[in-house]
TrEMBL record:
PPR repeats lie at residues 45-79, 142-172. This is Pentatricopeptide repeat-containing protein. Signal peptide: none annotated. PROSITE patterns: PPR. It comes from Hibiscus sabdariffa. Keywords: Repeat.
């Protein structure tokens, strides 16, 4: 695969150039080029994973998001799941529940970053009961946790609940 003039100039050896190219490909809908570049990248960071997840989700490729999840798992863990969860809200509740089950079975259900991502995912899906359950199950809540749940309730027309949550946040 050709990465335009960057290969000729040797710029494809730069991690940030690879990420910029990847982001450009997926935003332009050139998913095949983006996937090829992603697969060939020797180093993948948070921006890399997020670009692919966004690209797949924006192009209606929900099954590919789950495949990325499996790649993250194979690469050494669930640290990238937060990005997947955040994007799954717009893709599929079923895939999101699968990610949640895997988080729980891996013993990472108390991980605040993953819980924040789950709150965000369920809020995007409009499942405010599950949003609240994940939030209430967190032993420590950060500003991110509070923002996600307040925003979730607010965006779905539960302004009064959002204000109550805000007041609770202020008190804590």
């Amino acid at each position: 695969m050709s990465f335009h003039c960057c290969v000729k100039l040797g710029l494809n050896l730069d991690f940030s150039v690879d990420n910029c190219l990847l982001t450009m490909y997926v935003k332009c809908g050139a998913i095949e080029f983006g996937t090829d570049l992603f697969d060939e990248m020797p180093q993948k960071g948070l921006i890399t994973w997020n670009a692919m997840i966004s690209g797949y989700s924006q192009n209606g490729l929900a099954a590919n998001v789950l495949e990325l999840y499996k790649k993250i798992e194979a690469a050494g863990g669930l640290s990238g799941c937060g990005y997947i969860c955040a994007h799954l809200g717009a893709i599929s509740v079923g895939l999101g529940r699968e990610v949640e089950r895997r988080i729980e079975s891996s013993g990472l259900s108390l991980n605040p970053f993953l819980n924040n991502a789950l709150i965000n995912m369920y809020a995007r899906c409009g499942n405010l009961v599950k949003t609240r359950a994940v939030f209430d199950g967190m032993p420590v809540k950060s500003a991110v946790s509070w923002t996600a749940i307040i925003g979730g309730f607010g965006v779905h027309g539960y302004g009064e609940t959002a204000v109550e949550l805000f007041d609770e946040m202020i008190k804590t």
